[in-house]
Write a structure and sequence with these properties.
The strands form two sheets. Strands 3-2-1-7-8-9 form a six-stranded parallel beta sheet, with helices on both faces. Strands 5-4-6 form a three-stranded antiparallel beta sheet, covered by helices on one side. Helix 1 crosses helix 9 and helix 5 runs parallel beside helix 9. The chain has two domains: 154 residues, 3-Layer(aba) Sandwich (Rossmann fold); 77 residues, 2-Layer Sandwich (SIR2/SIRT2 'Small Domain'), CATH 3.30.1600. Helix content is 35%, strand content 17%. The radius of gyration is 19 Å and the shape is elongated. With 258 residues, the chain is an alpha/beta fold. The structure holds zinc ion. Zinc ion binds next to loops.
Length: 258
């Protein structure tokens, strides 16, 4: 059981929020832990670096080159990841971030592929690793969003041209989507008044970078994560609690003082 958020730190974050206009929320698997999802590292850490049944590393099984050479293997493990999201939905943490769009200019940068920020209603959303529910044809312009994979043949093919279908996710060895990177740069250029890092160990430079940069520019920073991470030493405020409990406490402090 995680500790409740420290009320003194919550009060100081709420005080900073009261003066803020533009907010950046950087989120990782930990924000979806309250929805019952495993906190895996990136797309593959579900397996904790163990080999797959086929004796590949999970990074190899979930790589762009495996999807080309042997799509059945990649889809098998994509299916397992999708299955871990199935039946789960966004939680209070996602909902509060979306709710704050009414009061602040909010940008969400997530490395999660569960689609929960979109489901919760976040509009200015950068899904750096994509969304496992979005499918694309590798040949024609067919695209679809599926609620889950239960109706799909494995591996799925395009209903129009019968070529391979892939999910809109960044597999191991693949480059990040340029549109998402450009979106992030545009947002960073405009600056933020407060930066939150929530539920991510910040192993990726594009996830840690905006926090470190904000800290160096004197922009207030908050980390919500039960454990210490790569950005902990840079942040002004640290809550070692769950994402949902922390954001509920901050929302309450903000409302009480308003
Ligand atoms: Zn097609």
């Amino acid at each position: 059981m995680l500790n409740p958020p420290d009320p003194a730190i919550v009060a100081r974050i709420a005080e900073t929020l009261r003066r803020a206009r533009r907010l950046l929320f950087i989120t990782g698997a930990g924000i979806s832990a309250d929805s019952g999802l495993p906190t895996y590292r990136g797309i593959g850490g579900l397996y904790n670096d163990q080999a797959t049944e086929e004796n590949f590393s999970i990074e190899t099984a979930l790589s762009g080159s495996m999807l080309e050479a042997n799509p059945a293997i990649t889809w098998k493990y994509l299916h397992q990841i999708e299955n871990s999201c199935r039946g789960a939905r966004f939680n209070d943490a996602h909902a509060i971030i979306a709710e704050w769009q009414d009061r602040f200019e909010v940008c969400v940068l997530t490395q999660n592929i569960d689609g929960f920020h979109r489901d919760a209603g976040s509009r200015n959303l950068i899904e750096m690793h994509g969304d496992i529910h979005d499918l694309l044809c590798t040949r024609c312009d067919y695209a679809a969003t599926v609620p889950d994979y239960s109706e799909l043949d494995m591996p799925p093919s395009c209903p129009r041209c019968h070529a391979r279908v892939r999910p809109r996710v960044v597999l191991f060895g693949e480059v990040l989507p340029s549109g998402a990177i450009q979106h992030l740069y545009r947002e960073l250029d405009q600056g933020f008044d407060l930066v939150f890092s929530i539920g991510t160990t910040s192993v990726f430079p594009y996830i840690a970078g905006p926090v470190v940069q904000a800290s160096q520019m004197g922009v207030p920073t908050v980390e919500i994560n039960p454990t210490d991470t790569n950005v902990t030493r840079f942040v002004d405020y640290k809550l070692a609690s769950s994402a949902a409990a922390s954001l509920r406490a901050i929302r309450e402090a903000l409302l009480n003082a308003a």
